[in-house]
Amino acid sequence: MKYNEAMMVINTERALEILCFPTKKNGSYYYFPCPECGSEVSIRFHGEKKNVSYCPGCKKGNNIIAIAAQIKGIGFQEAKEFLLGKATAIEKPIEEELSLAGQLEFCQLIEQEGLNAELCQQMGVGKWKGKGIMAGHVAFTVHNEHGVRIAYYGLHIPDKKTKFPANFNPETYLYNIHNINLHEEVWITKDLFNCLRIIQSGKQSVCNFGLPYLSTRQYQFLSNCDQVVFDWSGDKRDIAYTNIASLKTFYRFA
Ligand SMILES: [Zn+2]
After folding, report:
1. Which of 4, 139, 172, 200 holds its CA 20 to 30 A away from the CA of 116?
2. How do beta strands 103-105 and 125-129 pair?
3. Per-residue burial over 198-211, b = 16 or more CB atoms within 10 Å of its CB, e = otherwise
4. Are 27 and 147 in the same domain?
5. Are 23 and 12 in contact (CB under 8 A)?
């Protein structure tokens, strides 16, 4: 497996655990003590910079494979294979129903995205009314594949910066997969608003929460569908991170 792909597949938490680092989680990052200087190193566990770390003490970036090589006193290739063998377990999805229920309202940003209020109501999407981490965001109700409501995923108004709770890893879910008829065509997009527009046009759509790649679990979900259409508008370089050829089903590009 190539370096880029390995970096996307390695589970950060599991890797740090088998390297015996004490860790803390906060937002999109894990934190662990630097083996060089003891400062608190941050490492992303999802997204484009997944498994890339930064030590504020050494003022130096690093990555999980190089760290494993250093800790274990082995070469880079060997460390990569070691982590691919031991640290690719898929995170367990949240199964408990979310007790929190936010009041959501239709807003200008949603309207500008070309969406109607009826669909938003049906999908549990709207501007968050009240306090908490979703304040100032358009909140999207997220269900696991069994249809259990497990989290809200937020896009900040107006810059669309993402926000979600610390126990939610976007790699573990596909937005709207619980509503999908597996025998009908399914569209996949990185953009939640685009996903809703596709649904509004009468098609089935899922979304990978803006990750520049598909996680192992997201591949599994799509492999259960008979026909998949990729609508990855925008930067096609993103798709380089995703090994689409490994998708075990019929697929095409929009
Ligand atoms: Zn350091």
Report:
1. 172
2. antiparallel
3. bbbeeebbbbbbbb
4. no
5. no
pTM above 0.85, yes or no: yes
Q: 73 C-alpha vs ligand 1 centroid, how far in Å?
A: 18
Is residue 48 located within the same domain as residue 144?
A: no
55 three-class SS: strand
Q: Determine the Cα–Cα distance for residues 172 and 94; give it in Å rounded to an integer.
A: 9
Q: Does one domain contain both 185 and 64?
A: no
Per-residue pLDDT of the chain (254 residues; tens, 9 = 90+): 888 889 988 999 999 999 999 999 988 899 999 999 999 999 999 988 999 999 999 999 999 999 999 999 999 999 999 999 999 877 889 999 999 888 999 999 999 999 999 999 999 999 999 999 999 999 999 999 999 999 999 999 999 999 999 889 999 999 999 999 999 999 999 999 999 999 999 999 999 999 888 888 999 999 999 999 999 866 665 555 566 777 889 988 88
**CA 245 – CA 251 distance, rounded (Å):** 9
**89 CA from centroid of ligand 1 (Å):** 28
**Ligand 1 centroid – CA 34 distance (Å):** 5
226 in the same domain as 198: yes
Which of 240, 237, 182 has its CA nearest to residue 206? 182
Q: Measured in angstroms, how far is the CA atom of residue 61 from the centroid of ligand 1?
A: 9
CA of 11 to the centre of ligand 1 (A): 22
Cα of 158 vs centre of ligand 1, distance in Å, is: 36
Q: How many angstroms is it from 97 CA to the middle of ligand 1?
A: 40
- Look up the domain containing 9 and give its range: 3-86
